[in-house]
Amino acid sequence: MAKGSARLEIKREKLRALSPLEEPQSAAELRVRQMRARDLLRGDLEGPALERHVAESVLTTTLDKTMRWGRANSIFPATFGLACCAIEMMAMVSPRYDVARFGAENLRASPRQADMLILSGRVAIKMAPVIRRLYDQMLEPKWVISMGACSSSGGMFANYAVVQGADKFMPVDIHVPGCPPRPEALLYGFNKLQRMILGDPDPGWRRRYNAIGTEEWARPATGTASTEEAEAYAVARELSVARHAELAGESG
Amino acid sequence: MSDLGRDVISRTDAQVIGTALVERTAAGQALAPEQELMTINMGPHHPATHGVLRLLVSLEGEVVRDLKPVVGYVHTGIEKSCEDKSYWKAIPFVERMDYLSYFFNMEAFVGCVERLLELEIPPRAKYLRVIHLELNRIHSHLVWLGTGALDLGAMSMFFYCFRDRDRILDLFELSTGQRMHTRYFQVGGVFEDIPVGFERQARAFCAEMPSRLDQYEAILNRNEIFLQRTRNVGVVPRQRLLDLGVTGPLLRAAGEPWDLRKVDPTLAYADFDFQIPVGTVGDGHDRYRVRVQEMRESVRIVEQALDGLPEGPWIADDRKVVLPPRDELSTSMEALIHHFKLVTEGFRVPPGEAYYPVEGPRGELGCFVVADGSAKPARVHFRDPSFVNLQALRDMSVGGYVADLIQNLAMLDPILGGIDR
Amino acid sequence: MPDAPGLELIAQDLDQTAAGSVRGTYHEHGQACLIVDPEQILAVLGWLRDTPGQEYRFLASLHGVDYLPAEPRFGVVYELLNMPRVERLRVRAALADPEADPSEPGRPRTRSGGGDQLPEIDSCVPVFPTAEFHEREVYDFFGIIFRGHHDLRRILMPEDYVGWPQRRDFPVGGEPVIFTHNERQVPRWFE
């Protein structure tokens, strides 16, 4: 493959997509830029030369995107461990799996200062109102990762004492399966949450299998999904309701 | 102080709000009005409670006058769920009780069922079980040390201990396929033999662990702050601990050399040469030293077990109880039928009751199983050490400061999954 | 563990001290068990703890068992341990269910929990202080009242829970798994 076989064509391109700024093409252009930067600092650059320089060297974006970027990369998780998954959550903070590289090493104990709640462990019926109160005490914007099978759906405990999914009493953004999920799985879920916050949610397998529009969202789409997706969902839901009514009418 | 409060209210016509009924501890209710006690709630969500433990603490200034623990915030109904499952399907349930010592939970349950069945397990299975149990003990103590030191402010210990803990979990992943909650112990032995690289990696771990423990002791043993916080704090007399039913490192730190691995050895513990660390005073410092020394002794046990690991089958032969090996399924009709019956219905256990205790990292972990002749247990009950040790918290903390309460909780090492089951 | 003849000796001595307390013994799987009358449980436990020669001073566990449909229905099991000799003895107090219909023994009750009549037994906290949490747990799960316990209330279930979960006639609970054929019957919270 390195040599380029008969069936493979290898094109080598420099990776330029990392920054929207143009790289200088030659040494002369670089020298021109340096002179312009020196003039800018001296206050001598004016007019169209100034505008061109600014356009080349300053990154502009919307305030919204900047805020989302800031939020996604500095999430403060709440130290909330319920059961076994809490140990793996602690392992996520530990040096090997290191959530600090994603900006979330600052775990806060107080819900007022935290903006992400990781429900790590089984939610007992005695604990459910406490968790709801903690969630209510958190300030917007806040997100919830339901870690593990027990908090996503009751897990293996289908009995009188465990709430069958934290969905039942609070909105959850990301469900991470596993019993307990490996710290890497939790980090993957965390990365998905970051992408959601950035406004670029990862539809995952739905994109690969052409299944966008088949999700069930607990809340109406509030900007975490694009309008086409929201419309597709509404259409799909109507069809499903109509079909079920038909079936009920047939059998009834 | 309350006189002043009343004057302020009468002078300024302020309203007294917040007179809701507050749950008080017994000491709080028995007091006269001039002895002002403040009852605070160290709620289920608190950075220092290990898990979801709720404490109602009556304080006079900073001194704890009374303490009432409220538990049940992670009650999962495991014991009731087990009555609905066949015996080997109940194993993943019981191992999630005390979620740091999952091998011990499995050993207690599986040992109890084996006692009911009068089933002998092969020697290799005994050694493999001991290896995994002692590695689990080191793992549990490392997590305790990391989180306990974190409670006392030594944050770097958390990272060091979890780094080593990950190495143990690598070993578990190598032999069982899963880091935690491995479902490795089955009735009759262990699920699978250890793979080829396990022994070498385990020996490498055992070779390195004592020096790591030396490093941890170097950080904490003569640290002035650590000593000030743990010395002579939380002392309960030995007889009171025995009355309260406390076992494990708490009892051994108070001077009682009671360890089920020595006095009532099951599995292969009688074959190994190890010592039981016993403290003298029974304060926080002794508990810390006892647990660190226990880690060293566990490393020794693992090394001896690896040295003496016998060859042979890793699970018993009794096809009525144990799944046949998979290669037999394609050739032997009886094996196929046994496999089918065991997976769909499970094996039947003759009626009876048994209680099987093991020495867990926190104390005596006992399992009580009532069998009624069917494939499902009629009652499974776990005597969890943390549940009983929690009763000692009151004795340890009353009369001390709130900061000492945090230290007592750290040294008590409660695991709420075991308390609440 | 005391072996079978030793167990019989204990039963005889105990019967002499507290007449009629021992209802039976059994010795299986190397473990000894005494079945006693619940009304005399304090005398039995006190005798086992204090008599020189017995001295079972450590209560390892106290738990309840529901033997439905066998009679008597409940058993409160005390796991005693003699530390110097490392001997364990199990004492089972066989409690009858006062709500059971005597004409139809063994019939499971149609309604569990909130019963008017709950089985009662004396609390052994004066004898073994460790029993405090254990007895609360047995009360929480079986509805067995321990007379003399200073703070008998639920420990693991919510304080206002109705029902005795670990009785055999209490359902395990949980929810059915949602498939497409039954998803309309199981409402989700957002619908």
Map the helices and strands.
The complex is a heterotrimer of chains A (252), B (421) and C (191).
Chain A: H1 27-42, H2 47-57, H3 63-73, E1 77-78, H4 84-93, E2 116-120, H5 128-137, E3 143-147, H6 148-153, E4 174-176, H7 183-198, H8 205-208, H9 227-251
Parallel strand pairs in A: 1-2, 2-3, 3-4
Chain B: H1 2-12, H2 26-29, E1 38-42, E2 54-60, E3 63-70, H3 78-82, H4 91-94, H5 102-117, H6 123-152, H7 155-176, E4 185-186, E5 189-190, H8 198-220, H9 224-230, H10 238-243, H11 249-253, H12 260-263, H13 284-307, H14 333-344, E6 352-360, E7 363-371, E8 377-383, H15 385-389, H16 392-397, H17 402-412, H18 416-420
Antiparallel strand pairs in B: 1-2, 2-3, 4-5, 6-7, 7-8
Chain C: H1 4-17, E1 22-28, E2 31-36, H2 41-50, E3 58-66, E4 74-82, E5 87-95, E6 120-122, H3 131-142, E7 145-147
Parallel strand pairs in C: 2-5, 6-7
Antiparallel strand pairs in C: 1-2, 3-4, 4-5
Any overview of this molecule?
The complex is a heterotrimer of chains A (252), B (421) and C (191). With 252 residues, chain A is mostly helical. Chain A contains nine helices and four strands. In chain A, helix 5 (128-137) links the parallel strand 2 and strand 3 (143-147). Chain B has 421 residues and is mainly alpha-helical. Helix content of chain B is 48%, strand content 12%. Chain B has helices at 2-12, 26-29, 78-82, 91-94, 102-117, 123-152, 155-176, 198-220, 224-230, 238-243, 249-253, 260-263, 284-307, 333-344, 385-389, 392-397, 402-412, 416-420, and strands at 38-42, 54-60, 63-70, 185-186, 189-190, 352-360, 363-371, 377-383. The model of chain B is unreliable at 1-23 (pLDDT under 50). With 191 residues, chain C is of the alpha/beta class. Chain C has helices at 4-17, 41-50, 131-142; strands at residues 22-28, 31-36, 58-66, 74-82, 87-95, 120-122, 145-147. In chain C, the strands form two sheets. A five-stranded mixed beta sheet of chain C has the order 1-2-5-4-3. A two-stranded parallel sheet of chain C has the order 6-7. In chain C, a hairpin with a 7-residue loop joins strand 3 and strand 4 (74-82). Chain C is elongated and about 65 Å long. Chains B and C meet through helix 3, strand 6, strand 7 and strand 8 of B and strand 3 and helix 3 of C.
